[in-house]
Each structure stands twice: as structure tokens, then as C-alpha cells.
Amino acid sequence: MELQTKISLKPSHNPIDYQSKLVLLGSCFVENMGAKLDYFKFRQVQNPFGILFHPLAIENLIQRAIAGQTYQQEEIFEQDGIWRCFDAHSDLRSASSKELLHLLNQRLKDTKTALETSSHIIITLGTAWVYEHSASGRTVANCHKVPQKRFTKKLLSVTEIESSLQNVIALVQRLNPKAQMIFTISPVRHIKDGFVENQRSKSHLFAALHQTINGHGGSYFPSYELMMDELRDYRFYKEDMVHPNPLAVDYVWERFKSVWISGNASVVMDEVDTLQKGLLHRPFNPDSEAHQKFKTSLRAKITYLQERFPFMKFE
């Protein structure tokens, strides 16, 4: 008896291993999968401008990073004693305008370097709803709780999204033609926009993304479909009934791993997992001989792993 509708997935011909360098940009799926990749010590750069929910914000970051178009004083603003930028998440802020500009422009440099050297670029789209800043006419990545009357809310058309995604692919291909691009759509529903409005938003993303992939390349991973069809039960959601809970994240990660993580990486992942659990171990008696031996063994295993993979860092 089958109690689940399963999505057929095939392993990639260009999987991720410990030689790979990843760039992850976009919405919450990036954060969830990025945390897993970080745990297993894969090399990655994740959301240098913080979470970016819509395709225009992702395109803007990639375009500015590649062009070296640095941020200037007039592109940031002060609110309640804190300097912010509409192109970045609220995590990127500073009490000093000079410090914020330095941070933004350093992150642009880091993004370009990561894109140039990446083997895989994972982009997750969250919503087609955007906010245009009335005074400047620019579409923002984050409103930073500035009063909504200063913005105009807009639903991007399929054509606008498709054009943005085509620009992203073209920019990356010119900079790094060997990079494997992986697209997905966040399973998180933006119900603050409204239930019907969320469905309209996701449908625009789906239509534009698949048209773009069919015409310009790239791969698609069905994170949205996995949540909606394989995990269609509220026991897989957090208390807000919107975000996937840890069990769901683990499930989607296993499905992602079956497609995009090389089988050859599994042995190393098991070694890393053993070390991570060892580092989290809290002994009853820290001064005991047994624990001292455990610590010595753990340090030896870390050293052995780092000799093979010098980029791995353990705390």
C-alpha cells in the first residue's frame, strides 16, 4: 500500500562533492539547505546580502557584483540611528554609514569572487510580489519596516520574471560558463500577501522559471513539490503553519542529496557527522581519563580530515 505520492528524481550527471564550490542565493530553501551544507563542511557562500525573496533582488546583486558597481552614500539611509540599504536584508546594517558602505561593497567583491570560482549556483525564488520605492522608483529587496505608504506593491508578470532570470543566466555564463545553475521555488507560502495572492505569485514564478530553463538552460529541483505532494500534512510545519519544521527540512535535504550530492562524498560526510556530534558531546566528568582520551581521539580525527580537506574548519 502506497501512502504517499512520490516524485520521481534522478541523480545529476554533475553532482556536488568536496571539490565543489557553491553559491546559494535567494529565499528560505537556501537557508535550510545551506545550513546542511555548512554542517557537512562543503565549501559555500550563502546569501552575502542576506535573504533575497524575489528575482529582481537576486538579479540586482549579481549584476552589481559582476560589474563592480559599488554603493554610494545616496543609496543607503538612516532609520532610528541605524544605516540600512534597500538592496540588502536587515541583517546588513550599521550604526555608521561608512561602515555599512564598506560592508556592502566588500560583500559585492566577495560575491563576484564566489561566482567566478563556483562549480554550482543554487537560486531559490520566494515570491513574485515586489515593492517599488515611490521616491526613487526602484524595486527594493527589503522594506526595512519603512512605512508602506512610501512603496507601491506590484506583482511581477511572467514576462518580467522571465527577463530577469534570463539576465541572471547570461551574466553568470559570461563570467563562469562552467558553473552548474540549479533553480528551485521556495515551499514557504507568503500568506501575509493573502492566500490567493500567494498562489498567483507562485504560479508566475513557476511559469517564468520553467520557460527560462527550457530555453536557456539550468536545472530544476522540486522543493516546492516535495512539501506540497510528498509532505502534505501540517505535522511537517512549524507552529506558524507556514515554514517547514526540522523533520521536513531533513526530508527535503535527503531528497536533494539523492539528486545533487555525489555518492563518493558520502563517506566523508559520515566522517564529518561523527566529528560534529563528538564536538557537541557534553561529558558528566570533563576531567576523567576516559574523556581526555575521547578528546585526544577527536583531535586526531579532525587533523586527519583537515590534512585531506584544508578548507574544513571545526570549532
UniProtKB/TrEMBL annotation:
Gene3D superfamilies: SGNH hydrolase (3.40.50.1110). Residues 21-256 form the GSCFA domain. SUPFAM superfamilies: SGNH hydrolase. Pfam families: GSCFA. GO terms for molecular function: hydrolase activity, acting on ester bonds. InterPro entries: GSCFA, SGNH_hydro_sf. This is GSCFA domain-containing protein. It comes from Flagellimonas oceani.
